[in-house]
């Protein structure tokens, strides 16, 4: 045990020195680290175990960090590597109070927390802050009262551009007001955006420093962010803001928006374009990947350089290793997402606090949802797609469920079976393909042609010109996107002779030069020029962008009328994001003059078409177990095609015609899609209020109470409860038993452990028995979680087929493995083989 304590101390020594703290007088100044009074150290002790280590009380070494006048400034409570740093929290609090200090660092050498004991909870950090950075930090010396007392009205952003807009005659006149606002770029906050800021202010009033906004795509998260940024800068609680995005193309979009909203008061730059002079700006925009590359975030920034960090689409931008970037910075933190995950829904908070307060606090600090300081899994503010539709700001889609004969069978339980002659005359061999195989192992030009024909024949038209409305099509791969682009251009030439020159559709994928510029041009209606259907009408000549993964998150194009899903989708996050591209409202406007009089043609966008060729909508409506990636929905039927060529081990190519089998259009009403109302909360109240169910449960008769619920509560009109729906509403990524559900309802079970929590438990066991180098801690943890939960990665590692990593089977790459190191990899593999039942994670 003493070795683990000493090892932790050595790591902490190095971390302190890296942050500029000094054990000894040197050219930079006098020593500013004071150890426990009964500990004397030599320089040799800093790198070894130290001859006096055993004399330290309880085997721990505590540090007192001093300010520039030699007075106590920070209490650093050190714990052994096999202990959670938070176990020393109360001890450190009392020590700090006795010295009249407010700052505490908790560390075991691998995990570290920074804490202002008078403001909220300890913050997870990845490096120790320097004395200068804490002293200069606005966030560490904030005045929360100025944040929550600021008045915020609808014109909170508009007054930046024109503080006296209300005095303008064009504004005073109701007939010219809207045009005046448009011409001057004045943006007003909607009521729900004001409510979001007020919710943040109330959260600050309660002592919180982290916030989460769940706002549907199209509800103006960037404008809301601009208002938050102004609130912090204007109140003096921030001197600089970091805005993190997860895609390169979103950097320019964010910069453009912030310039429109915040100039002239505040300046915005993109970090990679202003590496040397980013300090001149109040808002710095960057992708997480840019900051992670070569550890730029540590090389260019101090932990206190930003007083407010905003993570856009935070479910993507700060997952995995990216979390290290986010947690490196100290300050207020805001997460934005259009795709909320109910990580810790239905937890009995009070019961858990009462039974094990320390476990509850650890859960709060380590759970990814708790990253943003949410209580009981509730966000700081929530505004859903259904809210937006109800309030008239967003629109729902018209789903076009179109399946060919082949795709219907690819979706079937039995799949699409191909029987062919083997090497011998009387030998047959069979290969079965499923939806996942389309354009990967199973190729069908005829199916792609039918996709394109169906899309073109049924797409919504531009109400002004009658041409195919603008759209985005999502394909399986870049090769698939190239095929579909070519087919669309050929079909467009037949439908509209002479109108296009192979520019009706354009491939927008990462391997296409200037792809990001093309997305912006499409948004601005000048991709390949403007439409040739009507002179003077501003609409892009290119009507369809064909992509794989671009143009999903945060891409704004209000006049989209068509979205095509030419691929199966397995993630609810991806599905919501793709669907969200079309939910924005828009007015199609064309002005023409007739005899000196201006005639305005105006048509509001009332819906958009979502073409679904792989049953994705049905999947997420009826069969998806939320927060768990399952198999595709499958339908009855299979196909046997005798007399076909031998099955190619690299795939099968179909040449036979593939007729359209079904085409059903469904206008989504105000109730929305199930994925937008995914949680099924009333069941718990229903069972609790049923006296018979409660009595049988209290008697311990589980079979009886389950039978009673089956007979009297399940599948009744209005709600139609089922056990499967309940499991989806729980949001667990594993199968929850009916007994567990009942235990949770009646308060015996505090919460359902998720797959992630099970992984955390297993990794904790590994970390307790293995010494993990601090610089590899995050890498080892990521590999452990991936190896335990991903059977394809596990098989590739076990079979030593490392070349498969980073292909279609997994996002874990060879580069990740090289960075981890084979010794660390083998250590995890051996431990899992001996101690972990991986079947629990399937």
From TrEMBL:
What domain of life?
Bacteria
Pfam families from the UniProt entry: HSDR_N_2, ResIII
Membrane-crossing segments per the record? none
The question of whether Hydrolase is a record keyword is answered with yes
Check the record and name the InterPro entries matching this protein. Helicase/UvrB_N, Helicase_ATP-bd, Helicase_Restrict-Modif_Enz, HSDR_N, P-loop_NTPase
UniProt keyword terms in alphabetical order: Hydrolase
Q: Which GO terms describe its molecular function?
A: ATP binding; DNA binding; type I site-specific deoxyribonuclease activity
Output the Gene Ontology cellular-component terms: cytosol
**So what EC number does this one have?**
3.1.21.3
Helicase ATP-binding domain: which residues? 202-358
Q: What is this protein called?
A: Type-1 restriction enzyme R protein
What species is this protein from? Anaerobutyricum hallii
Taxonomically, what lineage is the organism? Answer: Bacteria, Bacillati, Bacillota, Clostridia, Lachnospirales
């Amino acid at each position: 045990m003493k070795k683990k304590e000493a090892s932790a101390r050595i790591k902490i020594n190095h971390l302190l020195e890296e942050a500029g703290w000094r054990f000894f007088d040197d050219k930079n100044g006098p020593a500013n680290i004071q150890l426990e009074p009964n500990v004397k150290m030599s320089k040799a002790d800093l790198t070894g175990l130290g001859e006096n280590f055993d004399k330290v009380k309880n085997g721990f070494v505590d540090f007192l960090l001093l300010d520039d006048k030699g007075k106590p400034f920070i209490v650093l409570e050190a714990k052994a590597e096999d202990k959670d740093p938070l176990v020393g929290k109360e001890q450190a609090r009392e020590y700090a109070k006795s010295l009249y200090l407010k700052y505490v660092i908790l560390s075991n050498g691998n995990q570290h927390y920074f804490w202002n004991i008078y403001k909220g909870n300890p913050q997870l950090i990845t490096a120790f802050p320097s004395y200068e950075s804490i002293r200069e930090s606005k966030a560490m010396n904030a005045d929360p009262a100025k944040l929550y007392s600021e008045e915020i009205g609808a014109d909170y952003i508009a007054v930046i551009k024109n503080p006296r807009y209300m005095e303008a005659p064009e504004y005073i006149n109701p007939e010219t007001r809207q045009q005046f606002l448009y011409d001057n770029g004045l943006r007003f906050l909607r009521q729900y955006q004001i409510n979001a800021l007020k919710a943040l202010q109330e959260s600050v009033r309660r002592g919180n420093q982290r916030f989460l906004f769940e706002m549907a795509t199209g509800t103006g998260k960037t404008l809301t962010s601009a208002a938050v940024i102004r609130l912090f800068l204007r109140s003096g609680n921030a001197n600089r803001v970091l805005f993190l995005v997860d895609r390169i193309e979103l950097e320019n979009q964010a910069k453009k928006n912030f310039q429109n909203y915040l100039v002239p008061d505040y300046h915005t730059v993109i970090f990679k374009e202003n590496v040397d002079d980013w300090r001149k700006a109040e808002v710095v925009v960057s992708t997480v990947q840019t900051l992670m590359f070569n550890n730029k975030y540590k090389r260019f920034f101090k932990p206190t350089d930003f007083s407010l960090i905003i993570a856009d689409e935070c479910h993507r931008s700060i997952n995995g290793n990216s979390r290290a970037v986010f947690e490196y910075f100290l300050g207020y933190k805001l997460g934005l997402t259009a795709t909320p995950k109910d990580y810790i829904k239905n937890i009995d908070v009070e019961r858990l606090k009462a039974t094990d307060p320390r476990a509850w606090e650890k859960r709060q600090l380590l759970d990814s949802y708790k990253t943003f300081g949410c209580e009981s899994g509730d966000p700081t503010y929530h505004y859903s797609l259904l809210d937006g539709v109800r309030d008239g700001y967003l629109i729902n889609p018209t789903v076009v469920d179109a399946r060919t004969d082949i795709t219907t069978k690819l979706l079937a339980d039995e799949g699409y079976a191909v029987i062919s002659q083997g090497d011998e005359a009387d030998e047959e061999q069979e290969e079965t393909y499923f939806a996942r195989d389309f354009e990967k192992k199973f190729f069908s030009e005829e199916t792609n042609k039918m996709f394109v024909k169906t899309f073109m024949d049924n797409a919504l038209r531009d109400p002004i010109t009658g041409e195919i409305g603008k759209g985005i099509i999502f394909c399986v791969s870049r090769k698939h996107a190239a095929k579909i682009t070519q087919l669309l251009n050929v079909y467009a030439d037949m439908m509209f002779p002479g109108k296009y020159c192979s520019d009706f559709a354009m491939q927008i994928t990462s391997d296409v030069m200037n792809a990001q510029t093309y997305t912006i041009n499409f948004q601005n209606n000048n991709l390949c020029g403007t439409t040739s259907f009507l002179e003077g009408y501003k609409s892009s000549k290119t009507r369809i962008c064909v992509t794989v993964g671009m143009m999903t998150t945060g891409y704004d194009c209000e006049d989209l009328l068509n979205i095509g899903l030419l691929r199966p989708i397995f993630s609810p996050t991806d599905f919501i994001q793709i669907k969200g591209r079309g939910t924005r409202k828009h007015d199609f406007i064309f002005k023409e003059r007739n005899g000196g009089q201006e005639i305005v043609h105006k048509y509001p966008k009332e819906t958009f078409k979502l073409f679904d060729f792989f049953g994705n909508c049905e999947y997420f409506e009826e069969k998806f177990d939320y927060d768990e990636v399952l198999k595709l929905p499958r339908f009855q039927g299979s196909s046997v095609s005798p007399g076909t060529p031998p099955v190619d081990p690299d795939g099968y190519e179909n040449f036979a015609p593939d007729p359209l089998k079904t085409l059903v259009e469904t206008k989504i009403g105000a109730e929305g899609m199930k994925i937008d109302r995914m949680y099924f909360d009333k069941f718990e109240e229903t069972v609790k209020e049923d006296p018979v169910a409660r009595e049988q449960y209290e008697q311990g008769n589980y079979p009886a109470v389950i039978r009673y619920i089956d007979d009297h509560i399940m599948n009744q009109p209005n709600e139609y409860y089922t056990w499967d729906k309940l499991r989806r509403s729980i949001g667990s990524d594993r199968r929850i038993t009916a007994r567990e559900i009942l235990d949770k309802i009646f308060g015996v079970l505090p919460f359902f452990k998720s797959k992630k929590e099970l992984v955390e438990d297993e990794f904790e066991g590994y970390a307790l028995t293995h010494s993990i180098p601090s610089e590899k801690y995050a890498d080892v943890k990521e590999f452990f979680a991936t190896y335990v939960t991903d059977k394809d990665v596990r098989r590739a590692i076990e079979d030593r087929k490392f070349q498969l990593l980073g292909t279609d089977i997994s996002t874990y790459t060879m580069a990740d493995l090289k960075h981890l190191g084979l010794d660390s990899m083998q250590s995890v593999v051996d431990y899992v083989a001996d101690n972990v039942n991986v079947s629990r994670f399937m």
